[in-house]
Amino acid sequence: FKQLKKYLGMEGVVCNSGRKKSANPGPIDNKPLFKNDSSDIRDHMIDELDFFLVPEEAWDLLVDEFGIREEQEPLKRKVVEHGMFIKHCKVEVYLLEFQLSENSNPKEIIKKKFSKS
Question: What one-character DSSP code corresponds to residue 42?
Fold first, then answer.
């Protein structure tokens, strides 16, 4: 994110066009957000330290400007409402995981993730 801000001229010295060419961050790479086996996102990540949340329109602009690494998809998340009496909205970064099995075969368990919304 720091490199992106530098490239867009939001900090430091910039060239005539407003962008410092040497600071171009290159294509978006979400790989560091995933566990080593690439099965799911890492646990206990912190917003604005490990990742940044952006609206879909901003994501589209970033992909148009910088591209995205091959074989990667955006990590779309929903905004969900929290609270019983005092409601507030929050981006649901981590989905709920359920372990499912049939009564006829309780040892065969499959894991599925669901959104609260």
Answer: P
Closest among 20, 19, 45 to 30, alpha carbons compared: 45
Residue 5 to residue 13: CA distance in whole angstroms: 11
Residues 58 and 55: their CA atoms lie apart, in Å, by 5
How many whole angstroms separate alpha carbon 34 and alpha carbon 90? 21
Alpha carbons 3 and 12: distance in angstroms, whole number? 10
2 vs 87, which has greater pLDDT? 87
Tokens linked to 79: 């905004």
Residues 68, 33 contacting (CB under 8 angstroms): no
pLDDT at residue 9, as a whole number: 65
pLDDT 10s digits, 6-30: 676 665 544 445 555 666 788 999 8
pLDDT at 79: 86
Per DSSP, 2 falls in state H
Give me the amino acid identity at 29.
Answer: D
